[in-house]
Specification:
The protein is α+β, with helices and mostly antiparallel strands. It is built from 13 helices and 23 strands.
């Protein structure tokens, strides 16, 4: 349990952890490259450590010095000795299914922790099977554990039902090992880090509106670059600075890929006071210094197509909405029920306990504001994004908030509470 005291304001600069999604992908593509990929500012979260452990077990050469990571597979991948444990990481489990499916001769059992074992796997298993992948398991591939046997895959065209970058990535990784081109058609745009990284490594990709086509399996070229700071981690400080008075937080090196920054666009419509100074491209990904000031927030319309562009930021957007003038209605976010916990329930329960006017909807929330937030004991339900969103709510509350299960911040942001202590001003 962690007690977070109210803050008078937040101010300062934050060195963000490397982007988690980009870190996973750099490691996965390194494991398909004989020359290898070296990246600086690799995520220090437990989820990316799970990916590295699994790739190492499957024969990849993994070297880590601080936050510099090198992954290569000079002699290709092999069947691991034991099960590949993806821990709490959906990205690890789902993308490994795609990676292993397209590697003939590699056979792996993929497992996960209690939360991950409850999450749907069918969304990735069904398209991979249609390419000829052999995937089984006690639940028939609906849930972990799954057994994947790599083989020669056929190219296929997949019309995805769910907007999911994890599923898209799994299919593209499998497509790299298929005989013919593979096409993925997205219902709505999702984070495009895989496409950008493949293009950066010289893999031919054809993008035509919502259709992404990948051809053939040549060994991947190597490369070296720096991973930008994680926008999803920056989001907590952006909201904290916006909702506390006299605040100013600077976030250098933040990834600003437009398929990730939906929150910034929504907060801008809500009246966010901020500035942004472009820094250029790192490994095909744009980054910038973002500075956020205290803001007078007002409810704004949120479009369902924006949801995938800020899917991980919705818990902290809910916190911002409690402090905004008017009614914020967030719909089209049913996917939140399939994350590390049911985030619709977790956020509604915890924020209403702190005094927010929040109603749980089938696919989102209705939040009326501004409301004062009080103290109390709330549960993260073991979900890192919920824990950090509640810590931001606590900074703006009138009395201390105790957060149960705060340790899960390790999943994506081990330095979160240290950064919070260095930003929060508490004495008068
Ligand atoms: C991720 C995609 C998102 C996101 C997750 C990371 C990725 O999941 O919630 O934290 O790295 O591809 P979905 O694509 O399943 O929505």
């Amino acid at each position: 349990m962690k007690r977070v005291d109210p803050a008078r304001k937040v101010s300062g600069r934050v060195a963000l952890p490397g982007d988690k999604s980009i870190s996973h992908r750099a490691a996965l593509l390194g494991a398909l490259s004989p020359d290898g990929i070296t990246v600086h500012n690799f995520s220090d979260g437990a989820d990316c450590a799970s990916t590295l452990r699994c790739l190492g077990q499957a024969g990849a050469k993994v070297e880590r010095r601080g936050n510099t990571l090198s992954v290569s597979a000079p002699t290709g991948l092999r069947s691991p000795e034991g099960a590949l444990d993806a821990g709490n990481s959906g990205t690890t489990a789902r993308t490994l299914c795609g990676l292993v499916s397209g590697r003939p001769g590699v056979r792996a059992r993929i497992t996960g922790d209690e939360s991950l074992s409850r999450r749907p796997m069918q969304r990735v298993v069904t398209p991979l099977r249609s390419m000829g992948a052999s995937i089984g398991g006690p639940s028939g591939g609906m849930r972990l554990p799954v057994e994947v046997t790599g083989g020669r895959l056929r190219g296929a065209t997949h019309v995805m039902e769910t907007a999911s970058a994890q599923v898209k990535t799994a299919i593209l990784l499998a497509g790299l090992g298929a005989d013919e081109p593979t096409t993925v058609i997205e219902p709505l745009p999702t984070r495009n880090h895989t496409e950008r990284m493949l293009a950066h490594l010289g893999v031919p990709l054809y993008i035509d509106g919502s259709a992404i086509t990948i051809a053939t399996s040549r060994p991947l070229k190597g490369g070296e670059w720096t991973i930008p700071g994680d926008f999803s981690s920056a989001a907590f400080w952006m909201v904290a600075a916006a909702i506390l008075p006299d605040s100013c937080v600077t976030l250098p090196g933040t990834g600003i890929n437009p398929t990730r920054t939906g929150l910034l666009r929504v907060l801008e419509r809500m009246g966010l006071a901020y500035s942004i100074e472009q820094e250029g491209l790192k490994g095909g990904e744009p980054s910038a210094t973002i500075t956020v000031h205290s803001s007078h927030l007002r409810a704004a319309e949120i479009h369902p197509w924006e949801i995938p562009l800020m899917i991980d930021e919705l818990p902290v957007l809910a916190v911002a909405a409690t402090r905004a003038e008017g009614v914020t209605e967030l719909r089209g976010a049913m996917e939140l029920r399939f994350k590390e916990c049911d985030r619709i329930v977790a956020v509604a329960r915890a924020l209403s306990k702190l005094g927010a006017d929040i109603t749980e909807l089938e696919d989102g929330w209705r939040i009326a504001g501004p409301t004062r937030l009080g103290g109390g004991r709330v549960s993260s339900m073991g979900d890192h994004r919920v824990a950090m969103a509640l810590a931001v709510a606590a900074l703006a509350a009138d009395a201390p908030v105790e957060i149960e299960g705060h340790e899960c911040v390790e999943i994506s942001y081990p330095g979160f509470f240290d950064a919070l202590d260095s930003l929060a001003a508490r004495s008068a």
